[in-house]
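Key idea: predict the complex, not the pieces.
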Amino acid sequence: MPIFDSLLAAFTPFNLMLAVVGVVAGTIIGSLPGLTATMAIAVLVPITFSMEPASALIMMGAIYTGAIYGGAYAAILLNTPGTPSAIATTLDGYPMAKRGDGDLAITLACVASVVGGLVGAAFLFALAPPLADIALAFGPVEYFWLAIFGLTLIAALSEGNMVKGLIGGCLGLLLACVGVAEVSADIRLTFGSETMLGGIEVISALIGLYCIPVLIDLVATPDKHLHVETKSGGIRFGDAMAISWKGKWNLLRSSVLGTVVGILPGAGGSIAGLVAYSEARRSSKTPEKFGTGEPRGLQATESANNATVGGGFIPTLVLGIPGTPPDAVILGALLVQGVKVGPNLFQAESSIVYTFIFGLFLATILMLPIGLLIGKYAYRTIVEIPKAMLVPTVAFMTLIGTFAIRNNTADVIIMISLGVMGWVLNRFGFRASPIVLGLILGRIAEQGFVQGWTIASATGNYVGMFFGRPITIAILCAIVLALFGPVWTRRMKIKREAMANDE
Amino acid sequence: MTNEANGRSISTPIMAAIFIGIAVIVFWDTTSYTDADSYVFPRAIALVMACLAVLLIIRWFLVPSPEEVSFEGANLRRLGLVLVMLGATIAMPWIGFLLSGLIAFGAILVLAMYDPWTPMRLIVYPLSGAGVVLAFYFLFSNVLQVPLPVGTVFGG
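Result:
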C-alpha cells in the first residue's frame, strides 16, 4: 500500500511542524502588501535544501497556501490586496468590513480558502496526469484571448461603466509595455526617464493603485476607518459556517473553476478569483448585491484563489511547466533536490508526490485554526489602532514593501505616482482593478499576441490564427457573453417589468 | 464638473479626450521602435483604447448621466501626504531609509491626526511609531536581507 505509506509519512511530527511553520509564515508574509507568495517561498527556499524532498515540498506548499489566504486580510480590512490573487476579494470584502462585518468576512475567507485548497489538492491527487493535457492544448493565441477574457470579466464587473472598465484595462496593458522590450530591446514609453527604464513592477503598481487612494482618503476626513460592532470578538465561526453551508454549491463551483484556471500556466489566482466571482454573480438570483458586501462574492474569490495552489501543481509536477509564479520557484527547488518532474513522476517517485499531496491536505486543514487565530488578531489590530497611527504605519509599509521588490527607489516613486493617478481616475469612475489586471496580464497578452501575429504573418492567415481555433472560439464566446450577457439580462428584466406593468 | 443646463457631466468627454491623447502619444512613441515585435501590441491596444474613448463620448451624447465628481475633504492634507511620501523616497539615498522613514512617519502622523493632542498621545504615538519603523527596518534589513539605503550624508 504505497499510498497508505505516503499518508503516514506526511503525518510525521517533523512534517506536521513544517506545515504549521509554513502556514504561519505564509499567512503573515501574504498579509503584508508588497510581500507575495513567490517572495515568501523564494526567501525560505534555502531552508528546505537540507530536507527530504517530500518534507521540502510540504513546507513550500504550506507557505504557498498560507500566503494566498493571507492576502485576504489586507484586501478585506484595507482595500489593498496583499497578493494579486486577492484583487477580486476587495470587491465584496472591503464593503463588508466598512459596514461592520469585517470579522465575518475574515472568517468566511478562511473557511472558503480551506475548501478551495482541499478541492485543488483533491484534483491534484486524483486527476493530475489527464488534467495536465489541458495546459498543453493552449497555444499563444489562446493565452492572448484568455488575458483579454480576464480583462473583459473585470470590465463587466465595473457596474454601469463597462466602457470605462475596458479603457482602464487598455491603460493597464499599455503600462505593462513600459521599459525595455523583451525581444528587440527597444525602449518603450519611458519618454527619456531613467526611473521608468526598469518598467512598472506589478506588485508596486498593485500597492500604489489600491493602497495610496485609501490613504489619501483616510487622511482627508476625521471619520473612523472601519465601522465596528462593539461585541465582536474577531471571529464569527458559526455565522461563517452557516453562510458557507448555504453557499456550498457556490464554494464547490468556484473551487473547481479555480483549479482549472490554476492548471493554465501564467493565469494564476487573480484570473481564477475573477472568473469564479463573475460566475457566482451570473448564477445568483440577486446579482445587484455583488460589489456591495455580498458574502457569496467573497466565498467565490477566496475558494478559487486557494484552489489554484493544487491546480498550479498539476502542470508543474506532470509537465515541468509552472502553473503560477510560486510554482516556478518550487520547481527550481525540486530540481536542486534532484527530483525529475515530468509525466513519469507519479510512477517513478510516487512516494514523494503522494507524501507531498497528503502534506498539502494537512497544511490546508491546519490553515483553518491558524488562519482564524491570525485573522482574529489582524482584525483587532486594524480595528483598534487609532487612525492617526494606522495611516503612517500603512504608508511606511508601502514604502518599505515596494522598495524591497527590486531594491530601488524608482519603484517607490512609480508606486506613489500610480497611486495618485488611481485616486484621480477613481473620482472619474475609472476603477483600479481593470488597470492592475491589465498590468498583470500585459506580458501574457503581448507574448501571445506577438507570437500569434508572427505565425499569422508567415502563413498569411490572420483570421484563422486569431479567430479560427476551437479553444479560441470557446474563449471568444465567453468574452462576448461576459460583455453582452449583463446588458441583455438587464434589458430582458426591464422588458418583463414593463410587460407586467401593462398587464 | 456638471453642466447643469443639460444634466451631463462634462468630466466624461474630458477624460475620454485625455485617453485619446494618451493613445496618440503611445502611437507616436511606437514610430521610433526598430522591431515589429515591439510596436504591434502597443499600437493595437492604443487603437482599441482610442475607439473605446470615442464610444464613451458617443454614449455621453446619447445617454445623459449627471454624475458628480467630488473632491470633498481636506485636500491640503491629501497633498501633504503625497508630498511627504515622495520627499521621503527622494531623500532615502542621502539620509538613509531609517531616518527618512522616521521623519515620514512623524509627518504623516501629524497629517492624519484629528483628535486633540493630549500629553498621553504626545508620548505614546511617536514612541509607538518609532517602534513600528524600527521593527520593520530590522525585519527587512536583517531577516529578509533587503539592502535598505543607509545614506551618504552619514557616511554610508
